[in-house]
Design a protein that fits this description.
23% of the residues lie in helices and 25% in strands. By secondary structure, the chain is α+β, with helices and mostly antiparallel strands. The protein has one domain: Beta-grasp domain (Ubiquitin-like (UB roll), Roll). The protein has a 5-stranded mixed sheet, sandwiched between helices. It has a two-stranded antiparallel ribbon with strand order 4-6. It is globular and about 35 Å long. It starts with a strand and ends with a helix. The chain binds FE2/S2 (inorganic) cluster (FES). The site of FE2/S2 (inorganic) cluster has 11 residues, from loops.
């Protein structure tokens, strides 16, 4: 069963951490954060990441649930998330910036690390509903 380690983007802002810090997740693990902001999810094969977070009682952002906005966006820092057809992110955002939509995204590797709540990034703000 794939494991998704997650970190809330708002924590980066609060702590002054950068998305590209090499030790981002190590720092998060040591920071005594609430389970809402940092932790791991067990996801079923083929299960959407957003649904699995909700099943475990978390309130992650979303709007359309269909790959047409950027509310549910996350940045993949390790591993891979496969998306169903989406119509909102550019190729550059997907391939270079590793943005994924959690409402239509499934874990492709056994271990995945993501920064969720990435809708607050400047370049995604214009597509948040
Ligand atoms: S909620 Fe709109 S793309 Fe995921």
């Amino acid at each position: 069963m794939p494991t998704v380690e997650y970190l809330n983007y708002e924590v980066l802002d609060d702590q002054g951490w950068d998305m590209d810090d090499d030790d981002l997740f190590e720092n998060a693990a040591d920071a005594g954060l609430d389970a809402e902001d940092y932790g791991t999810l067990e996801v079923n094969e083929g299960e959407y990441i957003l649904e699995s977070a909700e099943a475990q009682g978390y309130d992650w952002p979303f709007s359309c649930r269909a790959g047409a906005c950027a509310n549910c966006a996350a940045i993949v820092k390790e591993g891979e998330i496969q998306m169903d057809m989406q119509q909102i992110l550019s190729d550059e955002e997907v391939e270079d910036k590793d943005v994924r939509l959690t409402c239509i995204g499934t874990a492709e590797t056994d271990e995945v690390k993501i920064v969720y709540n990435a809708k607050h990034l400047d370049y995604l703000q214009n597509r948040v509903i």
